[in-house]
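> example.struct
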C-alpha cells in the first residue's frame, strides 16, 4: 500500500513512507496546531487545527436562516439575530479530530494524514441547543437529531451535504450549543460561519459547521458521515463501533530548538521545565506521566485544574537533561481509568489513535550558537 522512497534532506539520507499527492492536498488545506501553541490555554484562532471535508461555503449572514423541523410540534426558522438575542454562554472546549495520529499507522489509511497535533481549545460563544429543541417541541417518538451543513461534496461515492446526528438525549445535554463566535470574534469562514454546533467532549466530526438545518427524525440517521464513516473497525466485515468521545491524550511542547527537517530537538544539558496539555472526553484527566527513556521509567508531572470542564489541563515537569540522546514521552490517565497505549493498534479508518507522544531530543553540551560569519 505505502511504498518506501529514499530522500536526501539537509545532508542526511532517510527513508520515508511515500505520501500521495491527494494526501498532501488535504494536508495543506487542513492544518494542525503547531505543538508550541500548547503554551496557550486558549488557542489563538489562526493556530487552531482545521478540518474541512469539501469546500468552505460562502454565506450571506443577512439572508441565512437555520431551519428546525422534522417531527417537532412547531417548526422554527431562526436568523442570526434571533440566535444572538437568545441567552448567551461562553465556554472553553477542546476539539480534536478523530483521525489525529492517522499518518503514523502502517499501512496508512488514505485520508487527512494527521500526525499528533489535530487539536485546539477555543472559547465558543452561543446559545444552548436544548431550549431551542424544547421550543420546537421534540416529540416522544424522536430517535435522532440531524445537523446538516451547507457544504456539499462526494465521499465514499455518495453525493452529500456534511451531516451528523445525535440522540435526543445527547442533543439536549446542557453543554451542547449553537455557536456564532470563537475567542470573542465572529466565526471565520473556515470554522463554520455563521453558526456551528459544539458538543463538548466529543471528537471533531460531531461539531457540524455552517449549519443550515436541524431535523428531528423517527428513524436512526443513516447518512454517510454517521453510518459509514467514523467507526472503529479492523476489517471491512461489519460496521464496527461508532466513534464518539475523545480518548485521553497528553502532548508536550517539544523542549529546546528543532532541527528544520526531522524536528529532532536540541537542548542544553541541565534542567528544563517541559510543559504541555492533556485532555479526555471520557472523564477528567487525573494524572500525567513523563518519561525521557522511551517509556521505560515514568515520573508523575504537576497537573493544573482544567481550563474549563470541557477543556484541557496544563501540566509541567522539571526534566534534568543528561548529555546524550533521549526519547521524551508523555502519557495521560483519566478518571475512568483510561490510559494512553504505548503503541498504536491499527484500524481501517485510522481513528481514535491516542498512543503516547514520542519526541527525540539530543542534549548537546555546546551552549552558544555561533552566528554565521557572513551575517
Ligand atoms: N459542515 C461541516 N462540519 C464539519 C466538518 C466538515 O467538513 N463540514 N468537519 C468536521 C471535522 S471532521 C472536524 S475534526 C471539525 C473541525 O473543526 P475546526 O475546523 O473548526 O477545527 O469540524 C467538523 N465539522
Ligand atoms: Mo475530524
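> example.seq
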Amino acid at each position: 500500500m505505502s511504498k518506501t522512497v529514499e530522500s536526501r534532506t539537509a545532508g542526511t539520507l532517510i527513508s520515508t513512507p511515500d505520501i500521495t499527492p491527494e494526501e498532501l492536498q488535504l494536508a495543506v488545506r487542513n492544518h494542525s496546531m503547531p505543538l508550541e501553541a500548547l503554551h496557550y490555554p486558549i488557542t489563538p484562532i489562526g493556530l487552531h487545527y482545521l478540518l474541512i471535508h469539501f469546500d468552505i461555503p460562502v454565506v450571506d449572514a443577512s439572508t441565512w436562516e437555520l431551519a428546525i423541523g422534522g417531527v417537532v410540534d412547531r417548526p422554527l426558522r431562526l436568523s442570526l439575530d434571533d440566535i444572538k438575542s437568545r441567552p448567551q454562554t461562553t465556554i472553553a472546549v477542546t476539539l480534536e479530530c478523530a483521525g489525529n495520529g492517522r499518518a503514523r499507522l502502517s499501512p496508512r489509511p488514505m485520508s487527512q494524514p494527521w500526525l499528533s497535533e489535530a487539536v485546539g481549545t477555543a472559547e465558543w460563544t452561543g446559545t444552548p441547543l436544548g431550549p431551542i429543541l424544547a421550543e420546537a417541541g421534540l416529540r416522544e417518538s424522536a430517535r435522532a437529531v440531524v445537523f446538516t451543513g451547507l457544504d456539499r461534496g462526494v465521499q465514499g461515492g455518495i453525493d452529500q451535504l456534511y451531516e451528523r446526528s445525535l440522540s435526543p438525549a445527547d442533543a439536549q445535554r446542557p453543554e451542547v450549543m449553537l455557536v456564532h463566535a470563537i475567542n470573542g470574534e465572529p466565526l471565520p469562514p473556515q470554522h463554520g460561519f455563521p453558526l456551528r454546533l459544539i458538543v463538548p467532549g466529543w471528537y471533531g466530526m460531531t461539531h457540524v459547521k455552517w449549519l443550515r438545518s436541524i431535523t428531528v427524525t423517527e428513524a436512526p440517521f443513516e447518512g454517510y458521515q454517521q453510518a459509514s464513516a467514523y467507526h472503529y473497525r479492523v476489517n471491512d466485515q461489519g460496521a464496527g463501533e461508532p466513534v464518539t468521545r475523545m480518548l485521553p491524550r497528553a502532548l508536550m511542547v517539544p523542549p529546546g530548538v528543532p532541527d528544520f527537517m526531522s524536528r529532532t530537538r536540541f537542548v542544553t544539558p541541565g534542567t528544563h521545565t517541559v510543559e504541555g496539555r492533556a485532555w479526555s472526553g471520557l472523564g477528567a484527566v487525573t494524572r500525567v506521566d513523563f518519561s525521557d527513556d522511551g517509556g521505560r521509567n515514568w515520573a508523575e508531572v504537576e497537573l493544573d485544574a482544567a481550563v474549563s470542564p470541557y477543556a484541557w489541563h496544563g501540566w509541567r515537569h522539571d526534566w534534568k537533561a543528561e548529555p546524550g540522546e533521549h526519547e521524551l514521552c508523555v502519557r495521560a490517565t483519566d478518571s475512568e481509568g483510561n490510559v494512553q497505549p504505548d503503541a498504536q493498534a491499527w484500524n481501517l479508518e485510522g481513528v481514535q489513535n491516542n498512543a503516547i507522544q514520542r519526541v527525540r531530543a539530543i542534549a548537546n553540551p555546546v551552549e552558544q550558537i555561533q552566528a554565521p560569519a557572513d551575517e
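> remarks
Residues 21-29 form the longest helix (9 residues).
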